[in-house]
Amino acid sequence: MAATGPFFIGVAGGTASGKTTVCEMIMSQLGMNDIDHKERKVVILHQDSFYKVLTREQSEDAAREAYNFDHPDAFDYELIVSTLDKLTSGQPAEIPIYNFKTHSREKETILLDKPDVVLFEGILVLYSEQLRKLLHMKLFVDTDADTRLSRRVLRDIAERNRQVESVLRQYLAFVKPAFDEYILPTKKYADVIIPRGADNLVAINLISQHIKKIVNTPASKRSYASAQASHLPSDISASSSGLELKRSVSKDKSEAVRPH
Ligand SMILES: Nc1ncnc2c1ncn2[C@@H]1O[C@H](COP(=O)(O)OP(=O)(O)O)[C@@H](O)[C@H]1O
Ligand SMILES: Nc1ccn([C@@H]2O[C@H](COP(=O)(O)O)[C@@H](O)[C@H]2O)c(=O)n1
Known about the structure:
Bound molecules: adenosine-5'-diphosphate, the ligand Nc1ccn([C@@H]2O[C@H](COP(=O)(O)O)[C@@H](O)[C@H]2O)c(=O)n1
Number of helices: 7
Largest sheet: 7 strands, mixed
Region (Disordered): 232-260
Order of helices and strands: EHEHHEEEHEHHEHEE
Catalytic activity: cytidine + ATP = CMP + ADP + H(+); uridine + ATP = UMP + ADP + H(+)
Radius of gyration: 18 Å
Shape: globular
Organism: Capsaspora owczarzaki (strain ATCC 30864)
CATH class of the domain at 7-44 and 117-250: Alpha Beta
Distance between the termini: 41 Å
Strand content: 15-25%
Mean pLDDT: 87
Structural class: alpha/beta
EC number: 2.7.1.48
CATH architecture of the domain at 7-44 and 117-250: 3-Layer(aba) Sandwich
CATH superfamily of the domain at 7-44 and 117-250: P-loop containing nucleotide triphosphate hydrolases
């Protein structure tokens, strides 16, 4: 039977593991960055867009670094599922825009209308069973903790209006414990694990090829069988925790297609 709605790819992993960068590299491989936003058939959706709206008390907690943004309860899974359901039934969906500086949603939203492929990235996109059932392919970006922490510190200071001390306090109080308790255990649900994130060009090329096939198949002929060992290229093999890419990656950064 032909598939309906977009092909949903969940991209999970710890904070600053490179989820967004991996998605941007896939977009670049697909030539999407040269196309106007509204015309793009492959889009990136961020789980951050679905952080719950905070009560006044929770906002005060967030301001004094006492709110846990890494706990599953911080996300509005109902809104996530209803958004994906809408897209599946061919309806457009309004996506909230999240502001990390104010810990709140902007007034504006982004309209997503009939995308072919949705790359849905976020720390806990593989956490909810209901959500996992809507994903046609599940990826886990596996980057070591010290690399992630260093990147997080630099990014949060540069882009999220944070100070080094507050990033480190938040990391110790909430980010690391939640990674161990809620995020890392979801790795077992991944179809493909991407070691080293955006440095792993082999993985990114393979995944991009898979997506290209989907985009180039007319909607009426698409079938969304989940990734299975027999359907995947030969340098991906089954392991106890999903499918792992076995070949090592060229260290030559000049091959990279990282957008800047
Ligand atoms: N392979 C990489 N090499 C160097 N810097 C990277 C790499 N991957 C990601 N980064 C940087 O690390 C930070 C976090 O990456 P990002 O993709 O936003 O992670 P996530 O979406 O998992 O939080 C960003 O500043 C990004 O530019
Ligand atoms: N107001 C907020 C909301 C979230 N965070 C942190 O963001 C992390 C998730 O985003 P990534 O891009 O790193 O995947 C998560 O670890 C939260 O701690 C925040 O600091 N402030």
